[in-house]
Amino acid sequence: MSRTEPEPARSYAPDFLTELFRNPLDPGYHDAAEHRRSQGPIRGWRRGTIRAVSLVTLVALGFLLAVAYRQTLAEEPSRRQARAGLVAQIKQREVETDALARRAEGLRAEVARQRDAALTGSDAARLRDLEAITGLGRVRGDGVVVRVADASSKADAVTGAGGTNLGRVLDSDLQNIANALWSAGAEAIAINGQRLTATSTIRAAGSAILVDFRPVSGPYEVSAIGPDEMERRFRDSAAARLLRSVAASHGMSFGVRKADDLTLPSASEAHLRYAQPSPKATPTPSGSGASPNPSGGGR
């Protein structure tokens, strides 16, 4: 019977996870800790220096904050005074503008009386009809009033965060309302008492909306005189559907109602420009045989 030699003992190397849980500290951190331990505890003078530097830094930051706060308080009265002065100037200019507008309205009425007295009955009636159509005369009748207003702002009073108000009325909203009313059959339109004509403009200047370069503020009322079907046609328009969607999503105020016996004021006198032929232009005779398209090509 042969003897069997004993088998050599097997050695098992730990896998990666076992080694990771056994020695979780990175060797570099271990060496740094051993280096600090070999140097001994931090001396008292070094600890005191660190505390002194920290204290000086905190004192300097506090001093800078105090100086900035005092400067802000010192400049606040001047800023408030400048703002109050600008607001007073704006209000004064508005009062003067309104007074001039009333004077101009009175002069136009006087001119109209003198003109009607000089014209015959048929000519005066025709002129009044043309003024009503072009917006240069006051009109009266039944119609529709569209009212829109900004949604309540959610901006924080201190930080100003959340100041983006998607429910704010834009100049394009008033443009769309006016165009939809014209398409619905409106014969005369006014925005907050500002009569629209064929040359009227509705533009934005910063956060303000200008109608014929006159500022209007919310809530905005677009009054229109027209047929009975105008309200239904406007409600079915794309502009009304868009505004209803914005009102439901972002809180904008939007409403449409019928109105009886509306009175819309006349617009300011329009500054018309007429095209005139140039005195240097030389007309080409129609029988000269010259081609109207010098390039010889078509569209």
From TrEMBL:
InterPro entries: DUF881 (IPR010273). Residues 267-299 are annotated as: Disordered. The chain crosses the membrane at residues 52-69. GO terms for cellular component: plasma membrane. The keyword Transcription regulation does not apply. Residues 281-299 have a biased composition (Low complexity). It comes from the Bacteria. It holds the Pfam family DUF881. Keywords: Membrane, Transmembrane, Transmembrane helix. Belongs to the UPF0749 family. This is Uncharacterized protein YlxW (UPF0749 family). It comes from Micromonospora polyrhachis. The lineage of its organism: Bacteria, Bacillati, Actinomycetota, Actinomycetes, Micromonosporales.
